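anyone seen this seq b4? input:
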Amino acid sequence: MKPEGDTVKTRRLGAQGPRVSEIGLGCMGMSEFYAGRDDNESMATIHRAIDLGVTFLDTADVYGPSTNEQLVGRALAGRRDAIVLATKFGNVRGPDGSFVGVNGSPEYVRKACDLSLQRLNVERIDLYYQHRVDPKVPIEDTVGAMADLVQAGKVAFLGLSEASPSTIRRAHAVHPIAALQTEYSIWTREVEEEILPTCRELGIGFVAYSPLGRGFLAGRFRRPGDVEVGDRRREFPRFQEENFAANLQLLEKLEQLARTKTCTVAQLALAWLLHQPGNVVPIPGTKQRARLEENVGASGVPLSPDDMAAIDAVAPKGAAAGSRYPAAAMQAIDRR
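predicted toks r here
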C-alpha cells in the first residue's frame, strides 16, 4: 500500500500526553549504528515524513554521539511547529564514542537538557525521555529534576525508556509520565506481560521502538552476510547464524500472511502494533524516503480479529530465536 497525501492518523500518548501521528519516525540510524550514512537523504526523509503527516520525530543525545540531534535540528529549520520532537538523555559516551555508563543525577539531567536544546536549535523539547534508568540514582531524584525542566519551560512532557513497572509507578508518582518507550514488535513481546498493563492503568502512552526488529521484519536480510560490515546488527544474537535461520522461517510465515493482505511484511508488522490495545505508537527508523513511504502505508492496512489471531498463531510470544540485545546491553535494562 502506498501513501497518498496526509494519510497518517493521529492518537494521543496516554491520557494527558501530546497528540502525535500514529506512526512516528526514528532518526537514530541516520547518524550511527546502522551502515550507510547520507545526511542529504536523511534530511529529505524527514521533510517527506512531515509532508505525509508524520508529526512525531525521535532522536537522542547519544546517537552520533550528538550529531543526530544536530541533523534533526537542521532538518526542522522553518518547520519546527509541524512536529512533536522527542529526545533522550542518560546514556553517556566518552570522547572516543565508547559507552561509559548511565547518568540520572539531577545535575546531569539539567546539563544534558541544555546541550540538547542547543544542538536541536529549539527553545523547548516536546517529550524528554530518560533513555535508561540509572540504578545508582533514585528515580524520584531523576524525575524530580526532569519536572523542574517542565516548570522552567524547557520541556513539555516527560518520558521513560526501558523502565520496569515498579520504576514507572515511582516515577509517575513524582510527575506525570506521558510516555514509555520500549522495544515492542511481533518478535519482541515481553512488554505484554506487565509493562503494557501498567501503562494502560496509569494512562501512560506507549512508544514502540524497533517495531520492525531492526529491519529483520522488513525482509531486508536473507542471510547473516547481508548485514554490512560495521553495522551494529552483526552483534545482535537474532542476526547470528542458527538464530538467523530460525528467525528467517518466522519471517517467511509472516510474508505469506502479508500477501493475503496485499501489503508488505513491514506494513503488516506495523499494522499489528497499531491494532494493539492502548494506543501504541510505533517509531520505525529509516533514512530513506522509499522505506518511509512504505512504513506510512501501514496506517491503511486493516486487520480483523481473525488476522490478528493468524499472526499470533505463526508468531506467538517467544517465537524469535535469540535475545534482543547482546548480554552487556541486556544488563542495562531496568528490571527492578
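The chain is about 35% helix and 15% strand. The chain has a mean pLDDT of 95. kinda curious what u guys think
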